[in-house]
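New to this. Please check this protein:
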Amino acid sequence: MKTYVALLRGINVSGQKKIKMADLTEALEKLGLFSVTTYIQSGNVIFQSEQNDVQFLSNLISKGIQQRFGFDVPVLVITLETLAAIYQKNPFLDRLNKEEIETKKMYFTLLSTPPDEELVKELRSGFNGEEEFVITKNVVYLYVAAGYGKTKLNNNFFEKKLKSVATTRNLKTVIKLLDLSGLNL
């Protein structure tokens, strides 16, 4: 049995695609997932499965939500180890630990597919704002000095520029998901 994290994009935002977490938990358990735990209303789920294919699990959850709740929700499933590696490889981690930058302004935009290198180069060359970002094959590490609500570098921006379905979580959520999973960093 392996532990996974499912990140649902766009549920319970501005009154759209409403799903109660108890209903989501029940729906996922009916799909054959085990030890389902949700965190806050924005679609963060920890679960266990005997299945080893994250794409299969993403599709399973997405189709299950479509059937149960009647709307499409992009779902990104990653292993717990992948989430831990994303946290540990954060290029801003040293500055965060030294309190040189604020933790509440650190975000992770997780990508469903690796971005094309040409698109990454184009994005880097055309950017000169005060926000900072580092793009890897599965995540955009984003530090927004003015706050996420004021940046143009949001989830939709990176999806459009990198041509990859994405979902964004703040540092607090990533840490909480790791804590809830029982993984000690």
About this structure: The longest strand covers residues 2-8. Strands lie at 2-8, 34-39, 44-49, 75-79, 106-111, 132-135, 139-143, 166-170.
